[in-house]
Fold this protein.
Amino acid sequence: MRPIPIRELLADQPVLRDLEPADIELMAGCGHNEVFQAGTYLAREGAPADRFFVVRHGKVALELHAPTGPLLIETIGAGDLVGWSWLFPPYRWTYDVEAIDRTRVIVIESACLRAKCDADPVFGYRLMKRFAQVVVDRLQATRFRLLDLYGNVDAR
Amino acid sequence: MRLVFSPAERAVDELIGALRRRGYMVIAPTVRDGAIVLDEVDGVAALPVGWSDEQEAATYRLRRRDDRSLFAYAVGPYSPRRYLTAPRRTLWSALRIGDGFELVDDVVEPPPYAFVGVRACELAAIAVQDHVVRDGPHPDPSYVRSRERAFFVGVNCGSPASTCFCTSMGTGPAVETGHDLAATELIDEGRHELWVEVGTERGAEVLADVQSTVSWRGATGDDLDAARRVLAHSVEQMSRHLDPATARDALIANLEHPRWDDVAERCLSCTNCTLVCPTCFCSAIEDVTSLDGDRAERVQRWDSCFTLGHSVVHGAGSVRGDTRSRYRQWLTHKLSTWWDQFGESGCVGCGRCISWCPAGIDLTAEVAAIAAGGTDV
Amino acid sequence: MPADAGAVATSAGRRLRPPVGPMVPTRYRVVSRERETADTITIGLEPVDAPIDEPEPGQFTMLYAFGVGEAPISISGCPAREGALRHTIRGVGATTRALCRLEPGSVVGVRGPFGAGWGVPAAEGSDVLVLGGGIGLAPLRPVIREVLENRRRFDRVAVLIGARTPADLLFAPEIEAWRARSDAHVAVTVDAAPRGWEGHVGLVTTLIDRLPITPTRATVFLCGPEVMIRVVARDLVGAGVDAERIFVSLERNMHCAVRQCGHCQLGPLFICADGPVVTWATAAPLLAVRRW
């Protein structure tokens, strides 16, 4: 049984569905597979953001560490992507990323992808639009969470 | 001034008597519950006469000798810390009056202690504690008082344990400083004598009593050689080693080393190491009230960084909530950050934490593993 | 010293000395009590016995509630400036809840002042940014007062205050007085607000970019939950503020407050003596180690 090429794995991910096959091919050139056991960390706050992840199977948690332990911000599951600090200087992870379940990811090397965006700005623009949409979706979801709708008496 | 007394047993007995007559409570090694501990003694018969010890990681046992040696063992679970900073003491009391309260100092002052048979590492540990509790901007008045009044008869080690590493830490085996008197037991088939070196005027004054009742001579060249051979033998026997500078640098550079996870699986967080350590100074301060609520005592007691409560943050939980972080705190404090805080190592190489750890954790081995490992994972 | 010197006759007829030493409190009486929020009060204290030394902004005392215990509480108002020693206390444990229940006339014990303070004079001649989140505004109140009372010594001044909701804001009337000043930029923001709130809603960091402050010329005094301190300090450094010019106030378990009980350690620092105020340059690597 042959191993599935990265570009096919990427093409399957809902979060990347708007990208052209040629875009997927460019991304795949910067990618490889990795597996993280539950309880291990994909990234640490403050560490260089030299990569980001597309989750194939499993679940990760974004965390901020407090003195008495990690604070859970959000979980991200299969089909979604993790990490956008690689887009902007100083290119450092904002959060800890911990694997909650055994998680399989596609790792995209960010320097590689940024170089491709610089070389082909039209590709870069399409990629940025996709990422911007992801960020907007997360922001809207976070705003809804802030309203504390389940607890907020006014929302009835 | 260097004298040799003969016989050693009578000299020690007379010395204990001389100290007691001057109002000291004499604290010396004594056998109890299968170990050599420290306790009040009233004469040489209470010392571990003819006893030795064998120590290894998680191991401590006594062994009978076939002579009447007085000091042929290393250190036991107690150290002078137990007397200079009592495990539990009342700082002050308060009585409720009207809307408020009145403070009263009804603390009974302990007697002056004379420690007979202190080792070089223990004197080094007392100096380390001095730097923490006495020499800062807020000296602890009861420690200052106990410390000033304490009399020290040091003993040069002739029988180090396999857990000792004072030579690495520069704290022994020779008693060089902090003593009123320093003794070396000279014992072999032919004789049992006590070499004594005077450290202070106070020491000379007490020794004069012993000189008037026990036969003595000025130390000869042969005596000096014999005393030196005792120490040289101890240095040769030293089987564990720790380089203080390597420990200091390697631990602080490797705070996420996998070895911490490894030791966390073995460590029971039982606090034994902190209880037997002569330099540990953590203490908890608490209120104890009478049943009718009209009187409160402010009590200070020994505490340990291995307890979950030690690092509790106000209104939240413990910062060091797992064994791994608590063990790392203890070791990095003892061997690394103590340097930043007090300009010296917190460890004197007495080896007690190795013998008395039920899991047999040996900090010299942990340091070696982390230092060898190279870089942070 | 003669055994009888300063002896106290008690009802039992025994003569006892008053105790001395760094672990012995001096008595103060509560002269005022104001409720700030649902779980936070501010008390004003005046000495019964000899007063403690005049505290610096940023220092703390150990407040003793008879029969309960001591808690480290930041000074939120200095006696020389305000006539009374003020502490703002949030009731989260047995001791702080006991302190929060005290009425005027009650007696408490005070030890201190302890610790390294904010060091406001070091900011003279620079832009000043004071940033307080939640109860973190309490130790900053003496800074704000000192800066505004000596306004000409500083360049541009900004104060940013964040809280969960408007009901959680401390010193609400005083904040209004600060906001009314024309010589300081004072902004308040909350995470969530009921209808009728006309101020900002959003994270306090969102206001930083719009301040009339030059980051490279700024001294920052920052206090709040530790996670907030980390995030805000990181953003400030990113904006160009020198990490040696960002002062933060840290908190750990405290018993003795005199560098002898070991509880307040954060790596090599004793928060009671080397802190609670330290520079971000010092704090950042220590706070990055988890569970140290």
About this structure: Chain A has a mean pLDDT of 92. Chain A is about 30% helix and 30% strand. The helical segments of chain A are 6-11, 21-28, 110-119, 121-146. The beta strands of chain A are 31-36, 41-43, 51-57, 59-66, 69-77, 81-82, 96-99, 103-109.
